[in-house]
Specification:
Blueprint lengths: L3 H29 L39 E3 L5 E3 L5 E5 L6 E4 L2 E3 L4 E6 L2 E10 L3 E6 L3 E6 L5
Antiparallel strand pairs: 1-2, 3-4, 4-5, 6-7, 7-8, 8-9
Length: 152
């Protein structure tokens, strides 16, 4: 049998636990049933056009104004079209099986895949890999020779 003071401490702990657990919930339920008085105060209106951003359309990024990643070329009708930029980053593999790294994507001869550029994704096919040149076709038609950038 437990001593009397231990039983009293357990009873007080249970009573306090119940009070802190269920009493606030009972007050919350009672508070939701109360009716609030309405006022005839005017409702403030906000013109949402005041908060719209206005971007210039000359290829400048408003969040990174010094960045050149959105360089755009103008077409004949004056619309801006993003430039397609392919860069040969390097070569890998043995002499009998060379790979070309174009825009962080590795190609073997005859391999075709989509490559991410500043203008979006384009379809690239590797036609030939020579000692310092990779020949690719873009979109199934235009043939381009890519060279490694010269390093000083």
């Amino acid at each position: 049998m437990m001593p009397m003071n231990v039983r009293r401490q357990i009873f007080l702990a249970l009573l306090l636990g119940w009070a802190f657990t269920f009493a606030p919930a009972a007050n919350l339920c009672a508070a939701t049933n109360t009716v609030t008085a309405t006022t005839n105060a005017p409702v403030a209106t906000v013109n949402t056009n005041d908060f719209r951003s206005n971007f210039d359309n000359n290829g400048r990024d408003p969040f990174f104004p010094m960045s050149s990643r959105q360089a755009a070329a103008l077409s004949e009708n004056g619309e801006s079209q993003p430039a397609v930029i392919l860069a040969l980053k390097g070569f890998s593999g043995p002499a009998h099986r060379r790979f070309a790294i174009i825009n962080d994507h590795t190609f073997a001869v005859g391999e075709e895949s989509e490559v991410l550029t500043a203008g979006g994704r384009i379809r690239v096919r590797c036609v030939e890999i020579r000692a310092d040149v990779a020949v690719v076709t873009i979109g199934g038609g235009q043939k381009i020779e890519l060279r490694l950038p010269s390093r000083f």
